[in-house]
Amino acid sequence: MGRNKSDRLRQALAFETAKIITEEGVRDFHRAKLKASERLGNSEHGSLPSNFEIEQAIASFQKTFIPTHEQILLVERQIALAVMEWLKDYAPFLVGPVLEGTLGVNTPISIHVSCDTVERIIDVLQDKNVALKFSEQRLKLNNDFVFLPTVNFEYQDNEIEVSVFNLRQQHQLPKSKSQNRSIQRINLKGLKELLAE
After folding, report:
1. 63 touches 69 (CB < 8 A)
2. What pTM, to 2 d.p., does this model score?
3. Bigger pLDDT: 5 vs 149
């Protein structure tokens, strides 16, 4: 396949993947890429776009096809701020698509906190009268994968996931799933400043 044709295929796959993530709420980039590849009849999985290309395509897709994207993003960030205020004693950070501006349908608001025990986080959230569910989130810290306890709940019709780092892990930045670098994150003060812009 020629270089131009290969580049066009990658762009088409990136666009279709962005559409799947944004409109269908598929959160796994690899699964979304394979679904896009299948839809476009691509049998060459070596031509799949990188996760970074997908993130760029998501931002472009949202600006072009979702005129209310900025307003939705503002509301999601305001909800994140409210939850982070509840958890202010536990060094909360907003992470993921709501921070990066690449949220899709049913994208949860992801918050990281640090605490010596998950029970303290549960106590704070139970005082807010939200129904809690529990899971684990797999993240890469340094060169190892770890499973962090995660508390999930709904607040103002939005799914919230709060991943709890222990105090030894609190200064270790997880690696991004889409790029080989540390994830973006913003603390309570930074989010307030972002919302004031």
Report:
1. yes
2. 0.83
3. 149
